[in-house]
Every structure is written in C-alpha cells, then in structure tokens.
UniProtKB/TrEMBL annotation:
Organism listed in the record: Lupinus angustifolius (Narrow-leaved blue lupine)
Protein name: mannan endo-1,4-beta-mannosidase
Keyword Hydrolase belongs to the record: yes
Recorded superkingdom: Eukaryota
Keywords: Glycosidase, Hydrolase, Signal
GO biological process: polysaccharide catabolic process
UniProt key word Signal: yes
Family of this protein: Belongs to the glycosyl hydrolase 5 (cellulase A) family.
Coiled coil: none
Length: 384
C-alpha cells in the first residue's frame, strides 16, 4: 500500500462550473441518495432535484490505490461509513495513477484492469454510503506520475520536449490526456454496471490537481489548455459538473488581486479569510458560479500542535464557510484534508483525521454537517 502526497496547501478553492470552465479556480447532511439525480449548478448555487445542495466533505486521495489490494478494501468502506455517520457527503479523490507505483495508466492508452476495478469499488462504495465524488483526472506533481510522467512518455517516444510545462502545449501530450479523459468517463463500472459518465454518485470532474506553469506566470498557457480541455470533457459527458483544479490564482489582468495568490506555505487564518472573501466576491459578481473550499487542514507536524489547536482551527474554518454560505450565497461547502482509516501509517502526512479515534474533531465535523443541511432547508423554505 503506497500513499504519497507532497506540496499540500491548506487552503485550496475551486469554482465549479456546469459548462465551460474558466481559469480562475474553481474547487448538509444529504437527504437525497446519490441515485436520485445529478448535482447541478444554478447561478451561484448547487442544486439537487431542484433543491439547494449544501454539503460538508473531505479528501481521501488514496482510495483507488488502497482498494487495489483486496485485503485493504475494508479501509475504503470504513472511511465512507464513518464519514457518512458524521454527515460528510462529498469526497474528493484521485482517478489517476500514471506509470508510477500501483499505476492505473501503465503507458499512454494501456491500463491496469485491476486498478480500474479498484476505482470501480470506490465509486460503488461511495454510492452505497450516500457520498458523492469529486474525481481528479491528473496530478500537477510527480506523485502518482502526473504531468511529469506524461511529458516523459512523450520524450521516450522521441517527441521533442523542453520541460514539464509542455504538458499544456504539446499536441501529442494533450492527446495522451484526452485519451485518458475518454477512457475514464466512458468506463463501465464492473460492480454497478453504470458508465461513469452516467453515474450520479460522481458529482464533479476535476481537470487537474493544482496546475501550475513555471514558464508562464500570466496564466495564459493554462487558460488556453483549459479552454481546450473543458469543452472536450463536455463533448463526452454533459451531465456532470466540471472544475479546473486551480488554487485560486489571479493573473496579470488584475494585479491588485495578486496579494491573494497562494504560495507553498501553510496558509494562516488572516490570509485565508482575505482569500475566501475575495474569491467569494468574484464568484458571485463576475463568474456567477458556486464556490467550494476543497482543501483545508492543520498538520500535526506544525510547531506547537495540539488536538485543541486543531479543533479550534477547524471550528474557525467551518464558521467561516457557514457564514459565507449563509450571507454570500455562493459557498457550497468545504472539504477537509484528509480522512484515513485506522492503521494507515503509510498515508499519514500530518493532516490525517481518523474519525473513530479523533472523537472531538469528529464531533466538530458532525455539527458543521448539521448546520449546512439546516441552511439548505432554510434556503429552500425561503424560496417555497
């Protein structure tokens, strides 16, 4: 069981769109089972079966890789079951593993069926426990292969490449990516018998986890890539929501907003508050799309860490999310980084939460879930 993740930023946000994705990121206690319909966006809100959809969620990037070992699959089931018990109803996880240890895509177009069946299991278990999925399609980093692996594949085939940023511009590499997108979206789940593109349990496709381009800080290169890939995804699957996977960077066209751009540092609450307010305003007035806080957490590796300190941080984050959802109208929810099951030392990165062990934190999560569903009900009542 291999679990690797690097460059965690404790506050990542995505703007989720239902048609063409714009390159300005975009990242409840559920009362309707996933089979009841697809989550959609209506203006600045998520809706499900015509009703407001607000959620509390989590990240567990490791699920497919762990599920590849039949002896470890119970850990996936345990996390979904425990998450559901505290009202967590959206999970963000990886639908990629490229030419690395326990790979899904061995080489361009060649797939490991055992790993694909592991992803089938993840989707089926999420469906079983009423959890919707945000599935990311490739990594920016070399963990699980990612963008560097795509470039290396091209280089090994004799394609002239300069650096990893050719991922966004080289037509051969873009073809590799499109082929992967098509393969995943058209995959028929061996457990449920439902193609991924027709599966309501899947809430959102994420183009790439945290894209960055070192040769072009203006954002134009990534934006051009998005403008090509978003319509391609929609040409295959127009049922699901789609998001870029960026971290909320502002480009050269609005220099006064660059103060809110994240770095690789652990984000502090003051910065986080400004970041959230800025992106809330822009999501409401410019993009007019719902907003999701897709990664936040506090690491046990931080100096002076304590459970009480983490719980205080969680309370502050959840209060901010709830207040902005209540007053701003565009916040759909937040996803804590990250949940593990017991005995998963290989996946520990300092941010891990084990709900069966971290009782006080689990209680805080449960209260947030209840508040978000109550807010969804009150919003529906005010409209009806």
């Amino acid at each position: 069981m291999t679990c690797i993740i690097s460059n965690l930023i404790s506050c990542v946000i995505a703007l989720v769109v239902s048609s063409l994705v714009v390159c300005s990121e975009a990242r409840f206690l559920l009362v309707n089972a996933p089979g009841d319909g697809f989550v959609q966006s209506k203006g600045t809100e998520f809706v499900l079966n015509g009703s407001p959809f607000l959620f509390n969620g989590f990240n567990s990037y490791w699920m497919m890789n762990v599920a590849a070992d039949p002896n470890q699959r119970s850990k996936v089931s345990n996390v979904f079951r425990e998450a559901s018990s505290v009202g967590l109803t959206v999970c963000r996880t990886w639908a990629f593993s490229d030419g690395s240890n326990q790979y899904l895509q061995i080489s361009p177009g060649l797939y490991n069926e055992n790993m694909f069946q592991a992803l089938d299991f993840v989707v089926a278990e999420a469906k079983k426990y009423g959890v919707r999925l945000i599935l990311s399609l490739v990594n920016n980093y070399n963990d699980f292969g990612g963008r560097p692996q795509y470039v290396q594949w091209a280089k090994s085939s004799g394609i002239p490449v300069n650096n990893d940023d050719d991922f966004y511009t080289n037509p051969v590499i873009k073809g590799y990516y499109k082929n992967h997108v098509k393969r995943v979206l058209t995959r028929v789940n061996t457990i449920t018998g439902i193609a991924y593109m027709n599966e309501p349990t899947i809430m959102v496709w994420e183009l790439i986890n945290e894209p960055r381009c070192q040769v072009d800080y203006s954002g134009k290169t990534i934006n051009a890539w998005v403008q090509e890939m978003a319509p391609y995804v929609k040409s295959i699957d127009n049922k699901h929501l789609l998001e870029v996977g960026l971290e909320g960077f502002y480009g050269d066209s609005i220099p006064d907003r660059k103060q809110y751009n994240p770095g690789f540092q652990v984000v502090q609450m003051a910065f986080t508050g400004s970041w959230m307010s800025s992106h809330l305003q822009d999501s409401r007035t410019i993009l007019k799309k719902p907003l999701v806080l897709t990664e936040f957490g506090k690491s046990k590796k931080d100096p002076g860490y304590s459970i009480e300190g983490r719980d205080s941080f969680m309370n502050n984050m959840y209060s901010s999310i709830y207040n902005l959802a209540q007053n701003g109208g565009t916040f759909g929810g937040g996803l804590v980084w990250q949940l593990l099951d017991e005995g998963m030392d290989q996946c520990e990165d300092g941010y891990e939460i084990v709900l069966s062990q971290d009782i006080s934190t689990a209680s805080i999560i449960s209260r947030q879930s209840s508040k978000m569903v109550a807010l969804a009900h009150s919003r529906q009542g005010s409209k009806g």
